[in-house]
Amino acid sequence: MNAVMPTNPKPITNAEVKSALDLAVEQVRRNLPAFTYASQNHSSVDNNYPAVTNDQWTAGFWPGEIWLAFEHTGDKVFQYAAQIQVQGFLRRIENRIETDHHDMGFLYSPSCIAAWKLVGDEDGRKAAILAADQLIERFQPIGQFIQAWGRKGVADEYRYIIDCLLNLPLLYWATRETGDPRYRDIALIHARTTLANSVRPDDSTYHTFYMDPISGTPVRGATKQGYKDNSFWARGQAWGIAGMALSYRYERIEEYRDTFDRLLNFYLNRLPADMVPYWDLVFSDGDGEPRDTSAASIVACGLLEMADMVDDATAARYRDLARRMMKSLADHYAVKDPSISNGLVLHGTYSKKSPYNTCRGEGVDECVSWGDYYYMEALTRLSRAWSSYW
After folding, report:
1. C-alpha distances out from residue 333 to 72, 83, 286, 382, Å
2. For the chain, what is the mean pLDDT?
3. N or C: which end of the chain has fewer CB within 10 A?
């Protein structure tokens, strides 16, 4: 299927990128008093994030924003605040505080790998390697996947989700840092299993996939956060797009590149005119459903990642798409008045309850922490050559 190119947003200019990034950095600065020794909740409440302890799967995104602010400004205040955060992440992994799940990459790449890469923080490196060790403990040889959450090996929890593609860079990094091939080997195996089961024939993706704990054979695709099992959860599709780009950077396997394009075309064909999706791609204008701005930023980052690894004409197309997405977000969804919100981007959706899914329902039409982070990451990628935390 040929992609339908939404044409309403113009590409964001370099001057507009700088202005949007400056605005985001100042919001991060305003948030330091509340969130230097605390974490942000996964999503805002009435557009304002409460402070929470570091025990959520989303906690790594806020320190990632601080590191991006440090890179943009060189201001040591951001470095000091981010390194205070690193100490909390080291305590968390050493004491295994709410780490019985697969989201170690989301937690430790933008917080601790960033700290190691940018300022040589040894505690950041130590914490990230411990997180990689924890992640490979969740690998299931029977079925060949990293179990998402819950009790390992239990039949009704024997599953992985599309999001885990974003945790795999932690494993590639750990092999490079330690020389131990186990991390990379497991990342490759999990990616192969995901491609075999999670991408549907129409190039949409399952959020969740169950495997048989006895035989290891595929059982069924399902959803927890999408509208229903056979719909097209927007953020899941975005995780697939960005995950394939990151996997291709580490391993130039052509199936990754091909899958990236297939998932991208499916996503583009179901966007509204302003290029910001509804929370599930089954919905369109007039359905009365909320958007998920975070999916737009995630896809923009995936496009900009892949653009560095393809021919010039294809790269130009990817970058143009990313600039159009970011123009829409910066003009119409970004927080410009701090009295309205302490977040960066409005109209994200964490988990919207439907008659057909199993989520609790929270963070609907709010700021979401990963949405803020990926918005800043995309702007940073557009502003200069950027060395990824992933």
Report:
1. 22, 30, 19, 18
2. 97
3. N
Helices in 95-121 by DSSP H: which ranges?
Answer: 104-108, 114-119
Residue 1 is predicted with a pLDDT of 37
Calpha distance 59→41 (Å, rounded): 8
CB-based burial of residue 351 (10 Å sphere; 0-12 exposed, 13-18 middle, 19+ buried)?
A: buried
Residues of the chain with pLDDT under 70: 1-7
Report d(CA 168, CA 191) in Å as an integer: 8
pTM of the model: 0.97
Taking the C-alpha atoms of residue 188 and residue 169, their distance in angstroms, rounded to an integer, is 10
Pairing, β 348-351 against β 218-222: unpaired
SS3 75: coil
As a whole number of angstroms, the distance between CA 226 and CA 235 comes to 9
Residue with tokens 């502003």: 383
Active-site annotation holder among 163, 203, 274, 280 = 163
**Of 46, 55, 100, 103, catalytic:** 103
* 3-state secondary structure string across 245-286: HHHHHHCCCHHHHHHHHHHHHHHHCCCCCCCCCECECCCCCC
103 as an active site residue: the answer is yes
The answer for 301, left when phi > 0, alpha when psi is -120 to 50, beta otherwise, is alpha
Q: Rounded to the nearest 5 degrees, what angle is found at the Cα of 45, between the Cα atoms of 160 and 114?
A: 55
